[in-house]
Design goal:
single chain, mainly alpha, 10 helices, globular
Length: about 210
């Protein structure tokens, strides 16, 4: 689908076209759900919040103004605010769904020992995620939970594409360092990197610094 097509659907939705609203729901619901799940950890709660996001979208879309070529940053901003409000009301820390990130950081293997090691790593990853800065955590959630591009994340956070790359790189470097430290503290040897993670570590991003 071309961006021009999305613009037509959004403009129709702003006029109250129910078919266009349904098109936006179908296009973005799964992405919003994954982002929210990454933030809150509970599938049931994530589904409720995602539904609330689209109700808010319907209520607010008449006031939407184009500030770029994508509708996504505006919708993810609603999702972020909804998550913050929900967690504040619950007065608890978010239980992060780590599967998307764990699949990137932890090497795949069928070896029983490696599988046990990966299970331990997931527990360590939850701890390490809590050490990221708020901005780094947002980049990781939007990239791995929401599946946004660097350009879309930059528009949402008010950062350049280069800054987003640098934030993601520094966040992944920190996560890997903390994971290794947590394992050493428990007397375990350093774990293996996912091949994808290793490639990123070897190729730091160019561009703006955060």
């Amino acid at each position: 689908m071309q961006q021009d097509d999305e613009r037509l659907w959004v403009d129709r939705a702003r006029q109250g076209d129910s078919t266009a609203i349904g098109w936006l729901y179908d296009r973005y619901f799964d992405r919003i759900y994954r982002y929210v799940l990454f933030k809150v950890g509970s599938p049931e709660e994530a589904e409720d919040i995602a539904e609330a996001v689209f109700l808010r979208m319907i209520e607010s879309i008449t006031s939407f103004q184009w500030q770029g070529s994508s509708f996504a940053p505006w919708l993810y901003r609603i999702a972020h605010n909804q998550v913050v409000d929900t967690l504040r009301q619950r007065s608890r820390r978010p239980q992060v769904d780590i599967d998307p990130l764990a699949g990137f950081l932890i090497a795949d293997s069928d070896d029983p020992h490696a599988l046990a090691e990966a299970a331990d790593m997931r527990g360590h990853l939850r701890i390490a995620l809590g050490r990221l800065t708020e901005l780094q955590a947002q980049v990781i959630a939007l990239k791995f939970g929401g599946g946004l591009s660097n350009v879309e994340v930059g528009r949402l956070l008010g950062r350049t594409e280069g800054a987003v790359k640098a934030l993601q790189y520094s966040a992944l470097q920190n996560l890997h360092k903390w994971l290794q430290e947590l394992r050493v503290d428990e007397g375990a040897p350093p774990t293996r990197l996912s091949p994808r993670r290793g490639k990123m570590a070897a190729d730091p991003p160019a561009g703006d610094s955060p």
